[in-house]
Amino acid sequence: MSTATAETDTPAVEQQEEKITVYQWLALVVLILGTFLAILDNSLMNVAIPKLMAVFGSTATEIEWVVTGYMLASAVVVPMGGFLADRFGYKTTFLTTVGAFIVGSILCGIAWSDTSLTIFRIIQGLGGGFIMPVGMAMLYQIMPRSKIQVAMGIWGIAAMAAPAMGPTLSGYLVDNFSWRYLFYINVPIGIVAVGLGLVILKETPRHEGLKFDYVGSILCMIVFSTLLLALTDGQADGWTSFYIVSLFFISISSFIILIWLELGKDNPIMDFRLFKNPVFTLSLAASSFVMISMQGGIYMMPIFMQNVTGLTPMQTGLVMMPQSIAMAFMMPIAGKLVSKYGVVPLSIVGLAIIGFTTLEMHVLSQDTSIHWISGLLVIRGVGIGLCMMPLSSAGMNTLPNHLIGRASSVSNVIRNVMASLGIALLTSIMNNKSSQYGVRFNEAISTNTPAYADFQTNVVHRYLELGTDTNSAASGVIGVLYGLVQKEALTRAIADTLMLSAIPAFIAIVMVIFMKRKKKEVIAEQGSADNDAKHHVMIEM
Question: How far is the CA of 96 from the CAs of 85, 93, 126, 453, 533, in angstroms?
């Protein structure tokens, strides 16, 4: 931790005098375009899955690989981003990966089957996986350290604006044009990003002597591909099935071998020695727990709005959009506030907002107002915007520039895994709770009560109004009752799952408090070293 300077409090006076130049602002715009491109494409896909199933005549399992293939391809290349950027230069690496993403997008647009689309999505993912970690690391190479929180806040706008626009834009393109435009829309944005990058960005120094860690790269691919595949397919195939257990075994055993090998190398593909820095470790752990907690609102709420309240995907996107706008709006403000109040107080406030607003969602019912949900999500978005980027950058600020590329790659891959883990855990909890509530409600139903008799009369009357014969109307009562039971069971399950998803946010608060303590220890160590040096000088004199 001797290299750490732990900028979790107000920066020094001399650092505040640094200013962001015109070149640095323009470079930031290029990095924002690249980041926006990669995240927008992912957010476009989720809403379009039913359309793709209809177009290609695919099953849910077959079309799932359009999303899973991209995710796996992105995950396995993320750890290589730091090495490639150090070896070939950040500008070259960033623009090459954006170019590969554009080529993949064009190929996806001309796909003729679900198989070809999956293959082209993998190609697209190989490019897209590099964009965020390399872009984030390049931001640290370009910006002065005292202004990095402000720059990260502005850069984070792209990370929040894309999910805000994605579902609504996807619904509009699919409804009014063609699913192919979900990929073609990336092309002009990508061309602008590459064109501006060629003109504006300056190349960073290249380290010619670096050797590629082939063994570490292969192990990384095995570790993260098997882990993410297990987390993705675990719910469908069963967490105790031979297939899923085998994937977890391969991932864990490969990870142990990876740690053992990488700790003995000078230029590892995954630099686990970064975790000797306690501030970096705690900030990454805290932001990873935030990723899990975020999925409560981002992943669970669309399920509730579409399956319970009956909103369309486009309407759901419109309800979710204010939350993402609030996140994007708060991120640059958070960057300013960090320079005044420090990372720790701001993160605690943001995490508390996330925790309590997520906890409040446990009161969800079928009659809950959409406006109330949207308002609560906006407040939650403010909390996420306050803490997400400060937490992500707090640990990075303690590292020297030559380690930023590797740290960015490690941070991104771990957060991606934690987000996938969050979705898998929350989905599993939701499904289990839904089944439990369904059984409980079915057992509580009695056909000999006046309430059931009134319900049966109303349902039969409604069917008869629609022109159904008496026998069909009578038999339809059970089906209607089953549907109502399942909807209420799902509602209760989502409410319980949301309540549980608040816990990681509160755990993150504890980690942030420990970050404060670790910084004090570093300052104490530095002060002790300075006193020893002064004492030594006085003895010599």
Answer: 11, 5, 11, 69, 48
Q: For position 11, what pLDDT does the model report?
A: 42
Q: Supply the DSSP string of 430-486, one letter for each residue.
A: HHHHHHHHHHHHHHH--TTSHHHHHHHHHHHHHHHHTT--HHHHHHHHHHHHHHHHH
Which of 167-181, 273-287, 314-328, 519-533 is modeled with the greatest confidence? 273-287
Separation of alpha carbons 396 and 418, rounded Å? 19
Which helix (DSSP H) or strand (DSSP E) does residue 211 occupy?
A: none
pTM for the complete prediction? Answer: 0.72
Establish how many alpha carbons lie within 13 A of residue 394's alpha carbon, considering only the half-sphere containing its beta carbon.
35
pLDDT of residue 455: 61
Q: 60: exposed, middle or buried (C-beta count within 10 Å: 0-12, 13-18, 19+)?
A: exposed
Distance of CA 466 to the CA centre of its chain: 47
Name the DSSP class of 205.
P
Residue type, 229: L
pLDDT of residue 168: 75
Which residue reads 């990372």 in tokens? 343
**Cβ count within 10 A of residue 447:** 11
459's tokens: 């349902």
Cα separation, 511 vs 348, in Å, equals 10
Measured distance CA(208)–CA(186) in Å, rounded: 33
By the 10 Å C-beta count (0-12 exposed, 13-18 middle, 19+ buried), 277 is classed as buried
311: left (phi over 0), alpha (psi -120 to 50) or beta: beta
3-state secondary structure of 128: helix
Q: What's the burial of 148, exposed, middle or buried (CB within 10 Å: 0-12/13-18/19+)?
A: buried
pLDDT in tens, 76-117: 787 787 778 888 888 888 899 999 999 999 999 998 888 888
352 Cβ partners below 8 Å, 6+ apart?
383, 505, 509
Q: How far apart are CA 377 and CA 322, in angstroms?
A: 8
Q: What single-letter amino acid sits at 524?
A: A
Query: What secondary structure letter does DSSP report for 146?
Result: G
Instruction: Give the whole-angstrom CA distance, residue 72 versus residue 220.
Output: 12
Classify residue 241 by its DSSP letter: S
In three-state secondary structure terms, 230 is: helix
State how far the Cα of 90 lies from the Cα of 401, in Å rounded to an integer.
12
Neighbours of 475 (CB within 10 A): 12
Helix axis angle, 278-307 to 503-540, nearest 10°: 170
Cβ distance 490 to 434 under 8 Å?
yes
